[in-house]
Amino acid sequence: MLGFLVRPRWIALTAFAIVVVVVCVLAGLWQLDRLEGRREFNARYAAGLAAEPRPLEQLLDEGGALAYRRAVASGRYDTEHEVILYGRTLDGRAGNHVLTPLVLNDGRAIVVDRGWVPFEMDEPPVWEASPPAGTVDVVGALLADQPGGAGDVSQPEDRIVTVRSVDLQAIAGDVPYELVPWFLQLRAQSPSPGDLPVPAPLPELTEGPHLNYAIQWFAFATIAAVGYVILVRREVKDPSDPATG
Hints:
4 helices; elongated; alpha/beta
């Protein structure tokens, strides 16, 4: 009854249908895997932000996964080595972020993303958004190094002043102290930071489009399989049909 399947045209059609179904199913499974990865990240993110802020030095001594952990750091801002994080928006307004090293009591420093300033404020130090003088206490979320941020930005000969991502390795080469391998996105500060910079919001927790993409790929696989079955049944019912012959 199904002898027509050995005809060259049907062999090609069968092979094509199998390839389409397999590729679509694998693509759907890959999207589900990415969804699971995003959910795991969201869980770590939420857990880190839910924990009580702890002294930065304690967290660094313990090591481990510190991303999005809330930390408290005390020290003095070094505006002479401030850096502009180029091209960041806030509520639809173009601008930049200000990155300022905070020199800790033990002589090390941590780069603090102090927040957003208008786009025209693009040369450090940003005097219109100067930090408080003296010792400050900063509460923020620890974030990981973002290498390569200084590679495509024109810099003066003496030091890096602009980055497109928080490239701690590049910034470390221009400061006279050791930088810790994390940066701190400011959430609160004492004394108060004033009107500028505006503390930047943390990334929103979403699962992304992966579930929708997975459903689409599985739908494509189903359409291909059902379409193939319809053609086979049509051929069995009417072998003379030119559409399947």
